Amino acid sequence: MRRRGRISGSEAGTRRAPLITLVLVATTLVAPAAQTAPAPDITGAWVPLAAGRGTDPSIAPPPPGPVRLKAPYAADFEARRQADAEATKRGEPPVSDAVLCSPYGMPRMMSVATYPVEFLQTPGQITIVTEAFSEIRRVFMNQPQLPIDEVPPGYYGHSVGRWDGGTLVIDTVGIKPTVPGYQNLPHSDRMRIVERVRLVAPDVLHDQVTIEDPVVLEQPVTYTLAYRRMPGYKMVEFVCENNREYVDAQGKVRMRLGGR
After folding, report:
1. Can you list the positions of beta strands (E) in 133-220?
2. What is d(CA 175, CA 104) in angstroms, rounded to the nearest whole number?
3. Alpha-carbon dihedral sign for residues 146, 147, 152, 155
4. Residues 6+ apart with CB under 8 A from 103
């Protein structure tokens, strides 16, 4: 009878070594699941932060980029700007949304004088409320943007957002051309507004706004708004109901006197 030879301990270890090596290699190649950092908490009221002399450069917004309108729009805009300046010198302020009690709309609603802006973070949506004129935007999170032609034109358009690390990226389309643009610039219904909202300090928020319009602009326009957190502030109602100003038949702003 043929007897099986016994395998020595050293031989057994040698034969098991490749298996152990494979297990170690396989374990090394399997990386742990990436941990998604929680989104920053920007819920609450924020007031526009004026950047002037003495402002900490780490929180001050960068200067705005240049504005270059395409030829026909540039001429019309400059003529209107000069006419408004001359009318103001004569004591005839030009017609504005404030005179007409009209909403500011996007993107100007995000910075009206020193009125606060409130961010409300909820699952699936971030709601932005401005104190001036009580305007409201709804940013639908983690959803695809609609084609521009499928968005009914309005003051605020259709906004979708997502978190890119600690930055909230918002894409907005569907602003009707009659809504005055940034610095009262003209725009078409093709305008797209992309915002990158992030904390640059625990209580300082920046909103970098980039406006694209292939019809009106030679190149995108970028500027940054800065806000300071207002802990405990409660937004108040703003209704344009006691407006004495009106526009007469000649297009001039007039003031109603004596309750008439």
Report:
1. 136-141, 158-164, 167-173, 192-201, 204-212
2. 11
3. positive
4. 97, 109, 133, 135, 155
Q: Is the pLDDT of residue 182 over 90?
A: yes
Label the pairing between strands 136-141 and 158-164.
parallel
Task: Report the distance separating Cα 240 and Cα 76, nearest Å.
Answer: 30
> Two tokens at 127?
């709601």
Out of 15-24, 26-35, 219-228, 244-253, give the one with best mean pLDDT: 219-228
Task: Write down the domain spans for the chain.
Answer: 44-255
Whether residue 107 is preceded by a cis peptide bond, meaning omega within 30 degrees of 0, is: yes
Average pLDDT over residues 39-44: 95
Can you give the pLDDT at residue 155? Answer: 97
For the chain, report the end-to-end CA distance as a whole number of angstroms: 126
Q: What pLDDT shows up at residue 53?
A: 67
CATH superfamily of 44-255: Calycin beta-barrel core domain (2.40.128.20)
Predicted structure pTM score: 0.80
Q: CA angle, 185 as apex, 180 and 186 as ends, to 5°?
A: 75
Residue entry with tokens 């009318």: 87
Mean pLDDT of all residues in the chain?
A: 84
- Among 57-61, 141-145, 181-185, 228-232, where is mean pLDDT lowest? 57-61
State how far the Cα of 198 lies from the Cα of 208, in Å rounded to an integer: 9
Q: How far apart are CA 137 and CA 171, in angstroms?
A: 12
The DSSP secondary structure of 171-194, one letter per residue, reads EEE-B-TTS--GGG----TT-EEE
Longest CA span, the chain = 128
Secondary structure (3-state) at 256: coil
